[in-house]
């Protein structure tokens, strides 16, 4: 199986790329980072450090690499059996241009073999969004061919992949936690579904997308934001703080009640899932900086993302949301000079005040009492900033 994977960063190499390589795929990474591509093309292998209760090293071999701006990338797409991505939500629109050219080349070559494209991004229905970007680059006369032969398969991905220690000798080495989850919507495939170890099939993807968004993503973000406020450097250090852990767990239990109402999850099993995630946060071998996890706070405060969406769910089902509101208020305190969104948010708060910032960032105009509650918690958190 010929696979071209967009994104040769840590997540691409340590998670999806590794699963594809383990499935004996003919795997080609593509990325705009030329030094990274040169190194991958030269070595054609790298090591994945899997850390948890046990630490083991697994080697990924026989991979290829090409710059995504190289015209040959279009030829690779034209001949591929599957395309995957791990580029980040904001980059999907950029790679859509190259994908569209590859699909048009595929049609020109009369290659009518089914091709499935899976965006493995930290977002809701990333492949469906990628499809819209791709179709916008393709003449309407070719859309029917795309619908017939090209599948855009949505997925939910979950694996913590922090930056590799800069002191490491090999820049291609990557560290990942032992836990991983890649769930795909089996109803969206065109043609046969490939068998890939670690890829799980479901016909109810949104249940798993929101389970991850409302639990892992919600808890991770609140841990980072409260962690920074309380002066912690890493996620593992922050979650080991009893005050922070209590708030994070309570917020995850609040968002979990939404999932139980909406999808009928078993309450006891979901409580165990929350405890498992808290254990993952506490993994001392994952030196994950709170500033990395907290970056892009404007995106994370969007009404469709990990903080506001579960809050809206609690409003929908008339459920408690005290600790989610604390988490949202802590996000508004996030500061990171190297993150443009954090700087933009701080400037907005300084210029327009916290109330107007909440209204603009969180899209909560219909809930004035919620806005007041967030602003109140924001003021309370001012006193603990370190």
Overall helicity: 40-55%
Strand order of the largest sheet: 5-2-1-6-7-8
CATH architecture of the largest domain, please? Answer: 3-Layer(aba) Sandwich
H and E string: EHEHEEEHEHEHHEEEEEHHHHHHHHHH
Count of DSSP strands: 12
Biggest sheet architecture:
6 strands, parallel
Low-confidence stretches: none
Number of helices: 16
Computed Rg: 21 Å
CATH fold field value of the largest domain: Rossmann fold
Look at the helices and sheets and give the structural class: alpha/beta
The span between the termini is: 52 Å
Mean pLDDT: 95
Total count of domains: 2
Q: Any chance you could write out the topology, listing elements then pairs?
A:
Blueprint (H helix, E strand, L loop, with lengths): L1 E5 L3 H13 L3 E6 L2 H10 L1 E7 L4 E6 L2 E4 L4 H8 L2 E4 L6 H17 L6 E5 L6 H10 L7 H7 E3 L2 E4 L15 E4 L3 E5 L13 E4 L2 H25 L5 H5 L2 H22 L3 H15 L8 H5 L2 H4 L7 H9 L5 H10 L8 H23 L5 H14 L5
Parallel strand pairs: 1-2, 1-6, 2-5, 3-10, 6-7, 7-8, 11-12
Antiparallel strand pairs: 3-4, 9-11
């Amino acid at each position: 199986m010929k696979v071209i994977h967009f994104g040769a960063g840590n997540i691409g190499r340590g998670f999806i790329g590794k699963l594809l390589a383990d499935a004996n795929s003919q795997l080609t990474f593509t990325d705009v980072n030329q030094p990274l591509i040169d190194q991958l093309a030269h070595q054609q292998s790298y090591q994945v450090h899997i850390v948890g209760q046990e630490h083991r090293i697994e080697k990924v071999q026989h991979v290829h690499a090409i710059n995504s701006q190289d015209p040959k990338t279009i030829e690779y797409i034209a001949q591929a059996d599957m395309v995957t991505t791990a580029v980040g939500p904001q980059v999907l629109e950029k790679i859509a241009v190259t994908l569209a050219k590859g699909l048009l080349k595929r049609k020109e070559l009369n290659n009518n073999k089914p091709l499935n494209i899976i965006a493995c991004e930290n977002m809701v229905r990333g492949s469906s969004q990628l499809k819209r970007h791709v179709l916008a680059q393709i003449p309407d006369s070719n859309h029917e061919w795309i619908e017939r032969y090209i599948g855009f398969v949505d997925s939910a991905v979950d694996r913590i992949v922090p930056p590799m220690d800069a002191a490491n000798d090999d820049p291609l080495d990557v560290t990942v936690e032992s836990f991983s989850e890649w769930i795909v919507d089996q109803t969206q495939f065109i043609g046969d579904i490939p068998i890939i170890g670690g890829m799980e099939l479901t016909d109810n993807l949104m249940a798993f997308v929101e389970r991850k968004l409302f639990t892992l993503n919600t808890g991770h973000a609140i841990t980072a934001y409260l962690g920074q406020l309380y002066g912690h450097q890493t996620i593992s250090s922050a979650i080991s703080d009893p005050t922070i852990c209590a708030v994070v767990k309570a917020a995850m239990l609040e968002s979990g009640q939404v999932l139980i109402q909406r999808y009928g999850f078993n309450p006891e099993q979901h409580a165990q899932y929350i405890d498992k995630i808290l254990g993952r946060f506490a993994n001392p071998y994952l030196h994950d900086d709170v500033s990395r996890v907290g970056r892009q706070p404007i995106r994370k405060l969007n009404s469709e993302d990990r903080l506001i969406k579960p809050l809206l769910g609690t409003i929908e089902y008339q459920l408690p949301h005290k600790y989610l509101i604390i988490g949202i208020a802590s996000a508004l305190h996030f500061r990171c000079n190297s993150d443009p969104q954090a700087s933009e948010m701080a400037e907005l708060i300084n210029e327009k005040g916290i109330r107007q910032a909440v209204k603009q960032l969180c899209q909560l105009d219909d809930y004035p009492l919620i806005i007041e509650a967030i602003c109140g918690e924001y003021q309370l958190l001012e006193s603990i900033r370190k």
